[in-house]
Amino acid sequence: MNAKLIAEKAYDYLLEGCNGEKEKLDYYLEYYKYSKASSLKGVFREMLHHATQKQGSPNFIGGIENLEAVLFSFNPKEVVQVYGKWDKVFDAIAESDYVTPSKMDRENNRNTWVQFSKTIMAIARFLDRFDQYEEFEKYVNQFLVKENPDLRIGLPLIISSEIHGYGFALACSFLKEVVSPGFIKPDTHVNYIAVNLGIADQGDSDYRIYSKLVAFSEEANKEPYWIDRAFFLIGRGSFFETKRYPNEDTINCSKTEFVQIINNISK
User: Fold this and answer.
1) Which candidate, 258, 236, 257, places its Cα nearest to that of 248?
2) Which of 47, 84, 101, 259 has the most CB atoms around its CB within 10 Å?
3) What is the pLDDT of residues 107-132, one digit of tens each?
4) How many CA atoms lie within 13 A of 114 on its CB side?
5) Do 62 and 116 touch, CB atoms closer than 8 A?
6) C-alpha pair distances (Å), 38 with each of 30, 34, 128, 135
7) Is 91 helix (H, G, I), strand (E, B) or coil?
8) Who's near 229: CB < 8 A, 6+ residues apart?
9) CB under 8 Å to 174, separation ≥6 — which residues?
10) pLDDT single digits (tens) 15-33
């Protein structure tokens, strides 16, 4: 089926599921406008925040804001210059006034804080190459050339390779939420819809699904983020918490029903 038609049907399905609250739905489908970072410090902070989603979650690490003083208001260059190595970051946190919600054990390589200190230093080193946010933005845009869509997968692969604790999916999540709507995250809900609508094939890796969804979004004349968010909301069946909408209100929809609707139309 035509990609534009699938995108239109996804929108109509979500709109019906949220009782016609168009303004609210549009807000969520373009949420990157409100979550995008605008400084290197903001990028550093958000990369750390995303890292906590994998490495123990805030239940073990606590809010990233608790590390602001230790990390010089999230200045990556200062972190590299002052600490240099992960163990120095670890010691600085241990010696600070912050009472960590989980035990810090420097001798245990599996300890959450050992792992997270390595991530902090890896992120700082990754961002240290840029003097201004505009340089970082220019670097990112090199991967968003429409004439060569294969480049787009390069940045999440670089991040997942260079930054300790970051896998491909986490890198994609960070990029689409904080950096640019030109990226997409192949998660459970998104993958299910992509495979069952024939956008991707059963058994495709996350890398293949990512590339196929980027191509699909181009065909649909939508930002990859829009497609990602539409499929995600359909699969999730509810909105997520934001400052504007603090409640996770239910959306009356399901990914299996949506797939069935689309497949019935295409018969």
Assistant:
1) 236
2) 47
3) 999 999 999 999 999 999 999 999 99
4) 7
5) no
6) 17, 11, 16, 12
7) helix
8) 28, 29, 31
9) 46, 47, 50, 159, 166
10) 999 999 999 999 999 999 9
For residues 20 and 261, what is the distance between their CA atoms, to the nearest angstrom?
19
Query: At residue 89, what is the residue type?
Result: V
Q: What pTM did the predictor assign?
A: 0.91
> And the tokens for 265?
């139309």
The pLDDT of residue 158: 96
Percent of the chain whose predicted confidence (pLDDT) is above 90: 90
Average pLDDT score over the chain = 94
227: CB partners within 8 A, 6+ apart? 7, 184, 213, 216, 217, 220
Separation of alpha carbons 97 and 66, rounded Å: 9
SS3 57: helix
Q: What is the mean pLDDT of residues 146-165?
A: 89
| DSSP-derived 3-state class of residue 40 | helix
Q: What is the largest CA-CA distance in the chain?
A: 65
Given a contact cutoff of 8 angstroms between Cβ atoms, the answer to whether 63 and 54 are in contact is no
Instruction: For 174-189, give one letter per residue: b (16+ CB within 10 A) or e.
Output: bbbbbbbbbbbbbbeb
Helix, strand or coil, per DSSP, at residue 250? strand
Q: How far apart are the first and last CA of the chain?
A: 10
Token pair, residue 160, equals: 């997942």
Can you tell me the mean pLDDT for 140-165?
Answer: 90
